[in-house]
Amino acid sequence: MGKGKKPYGAKRTPVDDFDEYASDTSSSTMSRGGAANGKAHGVAPGEADDTVDDTYHDSMEALFEKRATTRTAAYAKLIKYLKADVRAGESEKNCHTLIGRCLDSIRRGSMDERSLAATTLSLHFVSLPEVPENLFSQVRVPLEVASLEGHDAARAVVIDALSMCCFVGVEDEEEARAMMARLQALWSKGGTAVRTAALRGWALLFTQARFGFSSSQVEGLLEGMAVFMTSDKSVEVRAASGEVVALLCSAYNLSLRAWADGTGDDDDDDDGSFV
Q1: Contact, 173 vs 210, CB < 8 A?
Q2: Cβ-based burial of 33 (10 A; exposed 0-12, middle 13-18, buried ≥19)
Q3: How do residues 231-244 score in pLDDT, each as one tens digit?
Q4: Contact at 8 Å (CB) between 83 and 25?
Q5: How far apart are CA 247 and CA 234, in angstroms?
Q6: What are the angstrom distances between the C-alpha of 68 and each of 81, 144, 249, 256?
């Protein structure tokens, strides 16, 4: 697609589902900055909403403040506005500045600031009208490092960001395959939140994978999902595992019923193969 990847058109549906990756959805009745100015918000059709632009810029400036509480409040505001509307123009104009501030918070901030910065980064990638070539490479390593550090909740948010940024910003087959392998490795390197985020991230990337898996690889993946679905105590992990199973069965024209029957009785003479 030339010099960048456009997250619009046919790739729009996963963007609509982004709230499943973020911690909280913002209210659809959000004032968009009017209340902060002491007046009711009202914009006539066709008129620009300057209060939103002012708040966006104010929040960007606040990210440079030394006080952590000021930065976290700024991230929270940016998340609300980026969720309420696709801020393509602002995201493009402030692309590298916002990425730089997010990465600095992810590297050095508290767990709360790291989580908010990671969510902001995800929304920023989704909002870009065209993702510049190699932009994902700028955020990959810091996100990968953060995905292994801190408590599970913060790690899960970072994994969500890593998955979404890769989904939007990567076209190279080998890079996408490597990221899916990294997410797969995280299935066993954390608690419920980390495992769930890694499973869902893997499933997200699988939906646009341009490469296939061998029969033995598919069976191995499904065997792993069977373990999660029958042994893990977390409903979230079981649900995420079920999504992976459904995607694999759909992609490879496999019988979901045959798979379920094949995982239910270890003493059966049938080996459960269905590929």
Answers
A1: yes
A2: buried
A3: 999 999 999 999 99
A4: yes
A5: 20
A6: 20, 23, 46, 49
Alpha helices (runs of H) in the chain, residue ranges in sequence order = 12-16, 50-62, 68-84, 88-93, 95-108, 111-127, 135-146, 152-169, 173-185, 192-206, 215-231, 235-251, 256-262
Q: Residue 4: enclosing H or E segment and its boundaries?
A: strand 4-5
Residue type, 271: D
Q: In angstroms, what CA-CA distances link 169 with 111, 125, 135, 148, 261?
A: 25, 8, 7, 22, 39
Q: Collapsing DSSP states into helix, strand and coil, what is residue 209?
A: coil
- pTM over 0.85? The answer is no
Pseudo-torsion of CA 126, 130, 135, 137, nearest 10°?
Answer: 70
pLDDT, tens digit, for every residue of 183-210?
A: 999 998 889 999 999 999 999 999 988 7
The amino acid that residue 32 corresponds to is R
